[in-house]
Specification:
By secondary structure, chain A is mainly α. Chain A is 57% helix and 0% strand. Chain A starts with 7 loop residues before the first helix and ends with a helix. In chain B, a hairpin with a 7-residue loop joins strand 13 and strand 14. The chains are: A mainly alpha (186), B alpha/beta (675), C alpha/beta (323).
């Protein structure tokens, strides 16, 4: 049985971590977001439910949910929301919070992002071959039997860069990112 | 000064007494302020007992001036002025100090509050001793009334006044009265036929001796003041001579030009270039629409003229003007419906079988474009499933943040009509079901029992992109069923959008024309939202119906009747009192520079060419003081706000600096001159 | 006209055809694109999932570099995700002072700074249809795309969210690419899912969920008899093209719809050889589609019937809202 605390702090945390988040307080629970979401049927809680849960303070369940990770950032919800709640941005906030709290059940999505980021931080540009290889090799490699032929076809069609490109100002970029990370809360 | 001032400090429960030391203040005033002979404090000055206290003192102590320190003058200035009048003291020899709104409600530091309270009372006491007796003037009230807008609100107001024996000029922009109600089929919750209950009233208006119906007309100009408005009406050229027209309708039959009727038929039906909006139109005369008539476009046709048996067609007709004089004006200009084009995800305008509520009303109406049959846009096929979407353009910061009041009930009504006339299944997509009035909640239950389905979830989109075979050829409404917590796709044949009610597009211009204000949205502003919903801040101009805000028919009729009652009250009195707090121009000092003329927000100042001076119309003047301050020759004085009075009040506020009034500090050598 | 150019990472790999065809058409269109020196990845939808200020700073570096490069005022990008990221960062830095402060503090560590509003960020198609203009494009068409039925697919990030007063077009049903394809001589099919999300990286997270989203789009284009889907985002192109066979396998369908970039279509209409536009690099071959150019369209448009006397159909609402 989930304990429903009146954990007002969680609601306030989400609001302050998201630009324009104050409008979350005016959520009507109308369901436009859940109705618009392309991945809605695959989420274990619809975006609207997540907001009700945040309001009720059940932090653990929210951060364990796959909802933020299934958000494809299509922004349908955000432009249709009658209260102008920055829903997609809240999803990003929840992604970050769940990683910090290490509360997600299925780590596929966060791992994918982490892998992508590793290459960006090392080279300054994304490197699909390296990223795909690293990610798929460490996530159910046996199930990815069609990745091989797929990669081969990409190569034949000349749509793969085999070597990563490193930007000249990589040190500058690293300095910027290091400083930025020291500044943020969530 | 040999005035006898009575000072009364109100506790207002703990509102004032909680912060200000009211007893101490009363005591201080009595001991320190010159002229004060009586000084009391009391729990609730505005109560009958509090008022009696003042009355008694005026009579027994021979008070000549009264000061009350209490709430804001907005609330009780009138009350205490009346007390003075009852006791035989001129009501303008009273001054009120707002200890509550100006001090106790906005200060937390008690010492500072007491300091400020002393200053305000000192100021009031000094000032009141320089105030003069003033008498309001009376102007006669013209018993005629102008009602602008011939919908149900205007019709109700007109009939009330006319039945009471007074004359009404009812102006309506369209060729017929009836407004939106004439477009409806049935009305909720009784399912009365709208036309059946409306047309008797329309007919009364059309035949009433006391009502001059000015249809197809607009108000051009308004000037004047309460009791005495001058109005110019423009009767638009209809190119038909009403004195000859019998209303036979042959012209309409013979007219070769058919156009989409965007107004009465909501774009769902057609009319001719010469037309009557609907069969039961009042008055019965058709009009020729200049924009679409072939004769005006090309110079040919004139079929109507050829066939008219009484020669009533007159293509040379011009707009005509009528100048009226009325005592009061009631605005009942109504509202408009949200344009659903603005919400692309609902597909209106792109997907054929998405309809607006007004289009659907016309469809259900037996005199409408489909003779009352509920069909798809092809005009033939009956739908087997209908979705009704609530809150289209309402409760939405992207369009209108407010709730439109009537749509939930109208949606239930539509559900009933669909199920009565077809075998279709009906699903409503709502956020909340709003059914507040008499019989409304019961109507909701009735529809549940009739088998209407309800999905609590604001429809996210309406699409024709089918994903599975059972969605092929349908409109799919996608929404989250919030009570189930699941996204659902529901295929239907027809979608009805319950659009918001909005102010008319020209509401702001109309408000400006009549000198009233309107909100940011465009709804006309009432004098007080709770206690005075049909009056405006402009005396003599009243509002009723949906121009004030979205509402249903019962409320509209109530407001129409209420406005009529207010006007009747004015007419019965015969005269109206004009507040004497007005500005006057000293002709000898006026140089004729006319700076004041354009500054007046109430257009109360005119220039007298022959005397070369400006003149203030006391009936229009509101005593705002702008001209008084602006006049470079200081030729204008404001009654009850003379320079001397104002300076003495300032002197009182600075009592502990200026001295001479309760000075704790030693009095300075000479009084500070503030001029 | 001189513009700053931010190609984005995928133009060098999975979206090579996009880069090739863009370069091929900018000359004829009279557009000068100046690549931002040493630009870095915008972070797509990944970086901001794990970092906040760093994500804005990552993008901010590009803005700072572009703004200080040779008085550039406009920054153009061909990729929807890059477009969203660059524009959103600029917009948020203007709207939320705290965010701007933190971002600039981070940028300062690299000796950079950026003032919101210094650059106008626009998508490549924006400058093609608005700065060059439909008329100028029409003049250069030598090989009208007659015979082709094209479904214009905009994707989600170019249309949403709203960023400031200036909006490129409608959130749900933009029409500029429809107009562009019509200008090139093609038949533009009704494609109601034109801004429906392709799923982004969903294929990597939960392939089933990803395939459903891709299938919806392919299905709708197919239902409307489209010969090809034209897109303007590398991610959309990859999903619809490279995963089409996966979708077919999974759902037992047999979609065979080539997915090309709008720049490739412009190039074809300008008479440029397909090879020089990167055509041939797509998974679902566009060869058949290319052959169709200049032929009669397969599905003829039904002639609009005149309103008969007993025609009971009700009039459609007239468009009362501009734009």
């Amino acid at each position: 049985m989930t304990e429903i605390n009146t954990n007002q702090a969680f609601l306030e945390e989400v609001i302050s971590a998201t630009p324009g988040g104050e409008s979350l307080l005016t959520c009507l629970q109308c369901g436009t977001c859940g109705g618009s979401c392309p991945s809605g049927p695959d989420m274990d809680h619809t975006p609207r439910e997540i907001f009700a849960m945040i309001d009720a303070g059940i932090k653990d369940e929210v951060l364990r949910s796959n909802t933020p990770w299934y958000c494809v950032s299509c922004y349908y919800c955000m432009v249709r929301c009658p209260k102008e709640i920055p829903i997609t941005d809240i999803m990003y906030t929840l992604k970050r919070m769940s990683v910090r709290a290490k509360l997600f059940d299925n780590s596929d999505a966060p791992d994918f992002s982490k892998t992508f980021i590793t290459f960006v931080e090392n080279f300054g540009r994304s490197f699909e071959v390296g990223m795909a290889a690293l990610y798929h090799a460490t996530h159910k490699p046996l199930k990815k039997f069609d990745m091989g032929p797929f990669a081969l076809k990409m190569l034949i069609k000349n749509r793969l860069a085999l070597l990563p490109e490193r930007i000249e100002g990589i040190d500058q970029l690293r300095a910027i990112l290091k400083k930025a990370k020291s500044l943020e809360g969530v | 000064m040999t005035e006898k001032v009575g000072v009364y400090i109100c506790h207002c429960g703990s509102n004032i007494a909680g912060i200000i030391d009211v007893e101490g203040l009363a005591e201080w005033a009595g001991e320190n302020l010159e002229g004060v002979t009586v000084s009391r404090d009391y729990r609730f000055m505005c109560s009958s007992l509090g008022q009696e206290l003042i009355e008694e003192d005026i009579k027994n102590e021979g008070l000549t001036r009264v000061v009350v320190g209490a709430c804001s003058p907005h609330l009780h200035e009138k009350t205490f002025r009346r007390v003075c009048a009852n006791a035989g003291l001129n009501p303008y020899l009273f001054q009120m100090a707002s200890l509550r709104e100006q001090i106790s409600w906005v200060t937390t530091d008690k010492d500072k509050a007491d300091e400020k309270a002393r200053a305000l009372i000192a100021g009031a006491v000094r000032r009141v001793q320089l105030q003069e007796e003033l008498e309001p003037s009376e102007v006669p009230v013209n018993p005629n009334t102008l009602v602008v807008g011939g919908g149900i609100a205007g019709i109700q107001a007109s009939l009330e006044l006319a039945d009471a024996g007074h004359h009404v000029y009812l102006v309506e922009r369209e060729p017929s009265i009836g407004g939106h109600m004439a477009q409806f089929d049935k009305t909720f919750p009784t399912l009365d036929c709208a036309a059946c209950i409306l047309t008797p009233k329309m007919s009364d208006v059309g035949t009433h001796d006391n009502i001059t119906l000015l249809s197809y007309s607009e108000v051009e100009e308004v000037s004047g003041f309460v009791g005495n408005f001058d109005v110019r009406i423009r009767k638009k050229a209809s190119y038909i001579k009403e004195e000859d027209c019998t209303g036979c309708g042959i012209c309409i039959e013979k007219c070769p030009k058919t156009v989409v009727d965007d107004v009465f038929e909501a774009g769902l039906g057609y009319r001719k270039a010469v037309y009557r909006p609907f069969p039961q139109a009042v008055p019965k005369f058709p009009v020729i629409d200049y924009e679409t008539c072939i004769y005006f476009e090309k110079g040919t046709c004139k079929a109507c003229e050829k066939f008219c048996p009484t020669g009533a067609i007159d293509f040379e007709q011009q707009d005509s003007y009528l100048d009226l004089n009325v005592g009061n004006i009631i605005l009942t200009t109504g509202c408009d419906v949200f344009n659903a084009d603005q919400i692309p995800q609902y597909g209106y305008g792109r997907l054929a079988n998405v309809f607006t509520s007004l289009e659907f009303e016309r469809m259900c109406n037996a005199a409408g474009p489909t003779e009352g049959k509920i069909v798809l846009r092809d005009g033939v096929t009956e739908p087997q499933s209908v979705a009704i979407i609530h809150c289209v353009g309402s409760r939405d910061k992207n369009y209108n943040a407010y709730c439109s009041n009537v749509c939930c009930m109208a949606a239930l009504k539509f559900g009933h009509l669909v199920m009565e006339k077809t075998d279709a299944k009906v699903t409503s997509f709502y956020i909340d079901m709003r059914t507040p009035h008499k019989g409304y909640e019961e109507f909701y239950e009735r529809l549940q029992e009739e088998g209407m389905k309800f999905v609590r979830g604001r429809a996210a989109e309406v699409t024709n992109a089918a994903r599975t075979p059972n969605e092929d050829g349908k409109l799919i409404v996608q929404a989250e069923d919030t009570l189930l917590g699941k996204q659902r796709r529901i295929p239907v044949d027809m979608v009805i959008l319950m659009g918001a009610l909005e102010p008319q597009v020209d509401a702001r211009d109309v408000a400006l024309q009549f000198g009233i204000s309107c909100s940011m949205n465009g709804w006309f502003t009432e004098r007080h939202p709770k206690l005075d919903p049909v009056a405006t801040m402009t005396d003599g101009v009243f509002i009723a119906g949906t121009c004030q805000g979205p509402k249903d028919i019962p409320d509209t009729v109530s407001q129409g009747a209420a406005a009529a009652a207010r006007v009747l009250g004015m007419i019965t009195r015969g005269t109206v009192l004009i507040e004497p707090i007005v500005a006057t121009i000293n002709e000898d000092k006026c140089s004729g520079c006319r700076i004041c003329n354009n500054l007046c927000p109430y257009s109360a100042i005119e220039f007298l060419e022959d005397k070369d001076v400006s003149y203030i119309n006391a009936a229009l003047c509101k005593g705002c003081g702008t001209c008084v301050a602006a006049c470079p020759s200081q030729a204008i004085s404001g009654a009850h706000f003379s320079n001397e009075q104002i300076f003495s009040e300032i002197g009182g506020l600075l009592y502990d600096v200026v001295g001479g009034n309760g000075a704790k500090a030693p009095a300075p050598e000479s009084e500070l001159v503030l001029a | 006209m001189r513009y700053g150019y931010y190609p984005g990472c995928s133009l060098g790999s999975t979206a090579r055809p996009y880069g090739i065809s863009t370069k091929a058409i900018v000359g004829p269109l009279g557009i000068e694109l100046e690549e931002v020196d040493d630009w870095n990845c915008c972070g797509a939808t990944e970086y901001i999932a794990l970092n906040k200020t760093a994500a804005y700073a990552l993008i901010g570096r590009n803005l700072a570099l572009a703004a200080s490069q040779d008085n550039l005022e406009q920054l153009i990008t061909p990729c929807n995700a890059c477009y969203l990221n660059l524009k959103k960062t600029d917009y948020y830095m203007g709207k939320y002072p705290k965010l701007a402060e933190l971002t600039n503090e981070a940028l300062a560590a690299g000796g950079l700074s950026y003032k919101a509003g210094s650059l106008t960020i626009r998508h490549l198609i924006d400058i093609v249809v608005n700065d060059v203009g439909y008329d100028a494009i029409a003049e250069k068409v030598v090989r009208p795309l007659k015979g082709l039925r094209l479904a214009p697919y905009y994707g989600c990030l170019i249309a949403r969210p709203e960023m400031g007063e200036e909006r490129l077009d409608d959130f749900e049903h933009p029409t500029y690419m429809d107009k562009l394809l019509a200008t090139l001589g093609a038949d533009v099919v009704d494609f109601p899912l034109k801004t429906q999300c392709c799923g982004g990286h969903m294929t990597q997270i939960n392939s089933e969920a990803g395939y459903i989203l891709i299938r919806n789009l392919l299905h709708n284009a197919n239902e409307n008899n489209a010969d090809a889907i034209v897109t303007l985002c590398p991610m959309c192109q990859l999903n619809l093209d490279a995963y089409q066979s996966h979708v077919n396998r999974h759902f037992k369908t047999n979609y065979n719809i080539p997915v090309l970039y709008f720049t490739q279509m412009i190039g074809l209409a300008f008479g440029i050889e397909p090879k020089e536009l990167g055509i041939g690099q797509e998974f679902v071959s566009a060869a058949g589609m290319v052959k169709k150019i200049g032929t009669e369209p397969e599905v003829p448009e039904p002639a609009k019937p005149r309103r008969k006397k007993d025609d009971k159909s009700l009039p459609m609402p007239g468009k009362r809202v501009e734009g």
